[in-house]
Amino acid sequence: MAADRILYHLNEVFSPKDKGRPLRGEEMNQTTILKDAYIAIKDGKILKVGEGDVPAELIDEYTVMEDLTGKVATPGLIDCHTHLVYGGSREHEFSKKLNGMSYLDILAEGGGILSTQKATREADFDTLYDKTKNLLEHMMVHGVTTVEAKSGYGLYWDTEKRQMEVVKALDKDLPVDLISTFMAAHAIPEENKDNPDDFIDEVIGMLPQVKAENLAEFVDIFCEKGVFTAKQSEKLLRAAKDMGFKTRIHADEIESIGGSKVAAEVGTVSAEHLMMITDEDIKGLAEAHVIGNLLPATTFSLIEDTYAPARKMLDAGMAITLTTDSNPGSCPTANLQFAMQLGCLYMRLTPVEVYNAVTINAAYSVDRAKTIGSFDEGKRADITVFDAKNLDYTMYFFATNLASRVYKDGKLIV
Ligand code: NIG
Ligand code: FE
C-alpha cells in the first residue's frame, strides 16, 4: 500500500513500545531508536516506520516525500497535566515569591488560585477562548499535539462550566487534542472557608451536570495542607468514580497529608506532583498501578529544592510521566521540553525515560494509548520533529525550542 506522505532520512526516530499498559520501572529505559529512518503515513495514520531506504512499494506518484536529513522524530508530545484556561495572570505575586513568601501563604491571604478565580470569573467566554488559544499555540510550537486541561478557576459552577466549554470548543477548533478534567475542588472558595465539607458536597452535586453535558472525562482534586484533606479527597473521588469518571489527585506537592494513599485506595489513573511522597506511599502507588504525573518545572518555578523522587519511583516499578503543570501561579510556562530537560537534570532521568514519559506513558495517563503515544501501525500520525541530530541533544541543549516541525494526523501544523 502506498503512503500519502513519507518523512525520510531522519537521523533518529524514537519509537516507544506499547505493551498495552504504561511502561513501568526499568521498562521506561527501553525503547527502539531507529537510525536513518523513515515514517510512512496513510490517511493521517502511521503506515510503517523503518530504517534505511524506503521500500519501493510504499511510494507511488501521489506520495509526498519529505527529506528530513539529520533530524530526530518522536511521537507528538503529550502534556498530561495543565491548568490551561484562566483569566488574568499573576506577575504581581512574582516579587512576593522572590522575596521568599511561600505558595501556600500567598494562597492563604487570598492570592494564588483565589486571585485567578476572581479574574476567571470576570472573563467572558471569548476572552478565555482567545487567551487559551494563544497558550495552546505556544504549546504546539514546542512540539505538543495533545494536552490535558483542568478546570478549577471557577470553583463555582458557572465559571467552571465556561472553562470546560472553552476546552471543548478549542478541541474542535485547533488541531491539538484536548482532554478535559473537572477540578472545581482546586481551592476552598472564600465563602466556604469555614465549611469546606459543604463545598465538597457542592462539587459532588456538580458531577451529574458535568456528565450530562459531557464536559469532562476526568475529575481531579488538590489534596494539600490548607486546601482539601485526604478524607475530603477520597469522598469526592469515590463519588466521581461511581459516576463513571476517571480520576486523578494532586498529592504530596508541598506537604504529605495522605493524598497518595487515597490515590492507591481509590485506584486513580494518576497521582500528580508527589514531590514530598514517602517511600511507603511510593510502594503503594506502584502496587496499585497508579501513574505518577511529575511536574519538575513547578518545583523549579516555586524555587524549591525537592524534586519528585523519580528514580525511587522507577526502582519501585512505578510508571511516570512528565508534564508542564502549565498554570498562572506555580508554573507559568508552555514549554514541555523545558520540563523534560529538568527531568534529566534534576531527576537524573535518561533521555529515553523522559521521552517514554511524555509519549506512551502520557498517552496512558490521558487514556488515549489506543490511538496515540507510539508509532504502531494504525495509530494517529502525530509526530514531532526536532532540529537535533540525536535524542540526547534535545535534552542537552536546554531551554531553547528545538521542535521544528509538528504533524497532527499526518498534517503539518507547525
Ligand atoms: O498543580 N497545586 C495546585 N494547582 C496548581 C497550581 C495552580 C495555581 O497556582 O494557579 C499546581 O501547581
Ligand atoms: Fe496542577
TrEMBL record:
Cytoplasm is among the record's keywords? yes
Free-text comment on the cofactor: Binds 1 zinc or iron ion per subunit.
Q: Which residues bind Zn(2+)?
A: H81, H83, H250, D325
Q: Give the EC number.
A: 3.5.2.7
Where does the record place it? Cytoplasm
Q: Which positions does UniProt annotate for Fe(3+) binding?
A: H81, H83, H250, D325
| Primary localisation category | cytoplasm
What are the names of the required cofactors? Zn(2+); Fe(3+)
- The entry marks the following residues as binding N-formimidoyl-L-glutamate, namely Y153, N327, G329
Pfam families cross-referenced by the UniProt entry: Amidohydro_1
The molecular function GO annotations come to:
imidazolonepropionase activity
What reaction gets catalysed by this protein? 4-imidazolone-5-propanoate + H2O = N-formimidoyl-L-glutamate
Provide the Amidohydrolase-related domain boundaries.
73-412
Annotated positions binding 4-imidazolone-5-propanoate: R90, Y153, H186, E253, S330
Q: Write out the entry's keywords from A to Z.
A: Cytoplasm, Histidine metabolism, Hydrolase, Iron, Metal-binding, Zinc
Task: Give the pathway.
Answer: Amino-acid degradation; L-histidine degradation into L-glutamate; N-formimidoyl-L-glutamate from L-histidine: step 3/3
Which Gene3D superfamilies does the record associate with it?
Answer: Metal-dependent hydrolases, Urease, subunit C, domain 1
Q: Which domain of life does this protein belong to? A: Bacteria
This chain's function reads: Catalyzes the hydrolytic cleavage of the carbon-nitrogen bond in imidazolone-5-propanoate to yield N-formimidoyl-L-glutamate. It is the third step in the universal histidine degradation pathway.
Annotated family: Belongs to the metallo-dependent hydrolases superfamily. HutI family.
Its name, as the record gives it, is: Imidazolonepropionase
Q: Which organism is it from?
A: Peptoniphilus equinus
